[in-house]
Amino acid sequence: MLSLWSAVFVSLLLAQQPAQPPQAPAAPAPPPPTTGRPPTRADILRGEYGRYRANNDLLFYHLDVRVDPAKKWIGGKNTIRFRMLKDDTRIQLDLYANLNVDKILLGTTPLKYERELNTVWVDFPQPLKAGREYTIEFYYSGNPQQGGRFGGMTFGKDPAGQDWIYTACEGQGAAVWWPNKDQWRDEVESMRISIAIPSALVDVSNGKFLGKTDLGDGYTRWDWTVQYPINNYSVSANIGNYVHFEDRLPSTGSGQVTLPLDFYVTPGNLEGAKRQFAQAKGMIEAYEHYFGDYPFAKDGYKLIEVPYSGMEHQSAVTYGNHFANGYLERDWTGVGISPKFDFIIIHESGHEWFGNAVSAADVSDMWIHEGWTTYLENLYVEHRFGYADALKYVNGYKSKVRNREPIVTQRGIHRSPPQDMYFKGALFLNTLRSVVNDDQRWWKLLHDFFQHFKYQNILTEDVIAYFNAQLGPQLGRDLTPIFNQYLRRTDLPVLELAFNQAEGTVAYRWKADERDFAMPIRVGTADSWQVIQPTTDWKVMKTSLNQDTFDVATDLFYVNVSKQ
Ligand SMILES: [Zn+2]
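Predict the joint structure of the above. Result:
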């Protein structure tokens, strides 16, 4: 058989010297400043990990509230236990300004506090001592803001006219409906959630169900325990006329024999849910294959019907995808793969691994949630339907990328990244797999990366350092410029190709903002790719191909190509 590889190509790196007129070395351009509106004081209060947040470490919350559907009212307390890291007399907590602070107690001592926008500065009469643990009780009440998917606490009705109340607050922050230390860096270690509601209703919150208690006044309290660190915004109440069914996944982590799968839906959707939620098992199996055990085994896994599309509440994923495949019955990436699975089950549950177990420490680095989870969709497709479908699926995301601003935004001002964090983030990870060019190594890296950072809150620098430590020595390169170009710069790298027909050569280099950008890429023809090692300086190689026939593996590497 004719080997196209040897017949078509003579891979000859002629010289490291530039063949085109040399250009003066470009000074590395600094990353562009954050675009968009300037931050407000509210943005700073929300996003900055300032002195009065950094002086303590959250240990435990007990959110214990009563919800009155008729009055659209919530009231109760959050018991907050924390360890002081420095001596200080003040801490920063958060509660939306429209909700009342009823009192804040240290033991029996009422504490003074000062409200500023959605922040509550809590003052202590005596200095709190570093290393010591303290517990305060924060009583509050009022009518929380309502809204859509990420809009707070919504008091609605189900199709049968029953009360249906749900929270989703990643955008606005959990302080929209309960008092807490509302930031991303410090997750509470564990939590108890107690929600008292009219006795005819059901509350499904995060964690393991402990039981319910009839309070004797027409209300019943539902108690849940969260046995892992949890993001504030992930804490949820889903209150409705739910029916419950369950399943089990054999053998999982944490020494358990089975992983409980619990499903809660409105009665009219029970049959549809039994059919559609069967996908949960295959989803968990796929992600466990790549990353290891489901990370919240002691708390179980739940899917809970809601009227919005869905949200990754930890161990209590909310679902509103019409009990149909695709995303809201659409072909999500438009390439025929998305109708094979339920996008919300696959995506939102993927966040159990990236978002909930591995969490970003600032919203600026939210690609760690969304880019990774979008890539997890792709891994699910590969595991269930094969590599060809996965490649098609991930490349379907290109139409959604804008390349208008960097994915990582300014820290400390709670500035959500652009939508590119999802799709460009996933395409970047698919590109990194091609850079590694060794799937065994890639799968091991993904697994080890997850295991290393499980239950931690990290930044992009942590991801880069880990990848460099694992891959750098073998690849013989520092991957930082590659990460920076895709995450901290706006434009994609462009592979510039200059053909010289007379010589039978092509000159090539990367056009990139990162002066040290150096990324291998496959070129030539698809049935016999050849790996070249372009940098931002010109190199020249022989080729028997011309401008029209010389191809670049742009489905494996998310780059632009310019030919001349
Ligand atoms: Zn997501």
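Residues 347, 351, 370, 373 surround zinc ion (CB under 6 Å).
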